[in-house]
Amino acid sequence: MRGRDLQRRRVTLALGAGLLGGWAAQPARAAQASTSSTASAAPAAAPAMAGAAAASAAAASAAAAGAAAADATAASACPADVGWADTLRRDLDAMATQLTQTLTPWPVPARVFTPEQHGLAADARSGAVSLTTAAIQRAVDACAAAGGGTVRLSKGDYISGTIVLRSGVMFEVAEGARLLASTNLKDYPEHRAKRRTVQDTNMGMNQSLIFAEGCERIGIGGKGLIDGRGTKANFPGEETVGSTPGRPFIIRIIDCKQVVVRDIHMKDSPCWMQNYLNCEDLIVDGIHVENQANHNNDGLDIDSCRRVIVRNCFINAQDDAMCFKGAGQRLAENILIENCQFYSTCNALKFGTDSQDVFRNVLVRNITLGGPSDDMRAINRRKADGGISWEIVDGGTLERVLVHDARIVRAESPLFLRLGDRGRVQPGTKRPGPGVLRYIVYDRISGDDNGVRGSFFTGIEQAQIEHVLLRDVDLTMMATSEPGADPRTIPDAPAEYPDPHMFEKVMPAYGLWARHIRHLTLQRVRFRTSGKDARPEVLAAACRQ
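Now predict its structure.
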């Protein structure tokens, strides 16, 4: 069913004791001009409204909020001042050009080293009983001592525990080769980061198949496969909480510069597939990840890194597919994500939840994302919780982020913004106050087969999201006959874990519900439903000019 065409206008609503700047919707005229709308309201208990027409919007709001509707007086269309967004677009385009020109793969010396040259008999690696860890590590060490080059795994299977990379080493799994992670936890000695983060104390992130710390010019590549063999049968550890969970990562790279990961196929990690912490000049290009084997099967986690390019990647994950974090408590900035596909049953593209420092200057373009694409082994649902989820809850800042030309499919909440006050930090560290979430743009966003929950942007009473623009957005949601949640019963929940399922399954609006935002602007925005849905299209409350 085609969604409702709407021309939104600023209105003033007399509800209860206060005045609310809200949304009214009028049927589209035959020759409708481009319009813009700004959510502009003072905090109050009753929400502002949006719907198919002023009367039906009032009725929908009354049903949702349990309050009597008031007459709405429409004013003339009120274009918002979004010059900041145009400036942001120019700035981030320039940033992307500069990154593309200056951040290129480091030149790898022509020298090649193999495990076979360092004690591994070629006929000994076909059996499942022979570990190749020692021979691979000797090849890595010899390569580094010689001044760098490539350590190559040729055709065949290599079963290994932890491999420690060194500066100057490009680790290559060639086409036809498979690096198979050992299924014996004893083959993964702990490597505790020299500078611990809240994730180390929270998750016990001390074991991995490939590890590096404090290196320069390192890389992982090749047309072969890294198989973590991380099924629950092989690694039945608990989910995240407490000390080392008994489920190694595949890649963990810490405090490194000039890191290149390209072309490689990866599958089935026991935990996160890859984690890059406090790195600078990081390129992830052309990787293919299938991670559906166990709990916490993130596809790609980048934490507190600077000058980052992620491009041409396919990631299909049980947990977050592409996730940026700030647990390293260092500035994360100048990040380009382009030409990628991210699929997940959790969040397809996410900032958070660990958000203890600053993220800024992020450009995301030409991507498709949403619910899982193919591999369904470890999941029980087809939709992602969130499509694009920006979450600041630990005192950090996320600002100057532009997403354009994105398609979102099979996401319960296509767009999710959350500013909260969980305040998770390392033991002994002073708890921060609420953080900052501002200057966010979604431009040319489309998609279908999304869930009934809809998109929602929520700050808290003591900390509002600021300056958000949706421009040329067209998203189709599944319709429901269930009534939307009463907005008055939805708590601020400042300390709750931030996720699209943190509130009700059926939110007050089928398209967008917003609360505690300053300067929310919609330009040429349309939310459709697959059938009849009595909820309003857009509902805003406690939003300020």
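Residues 6-85 form one domain.
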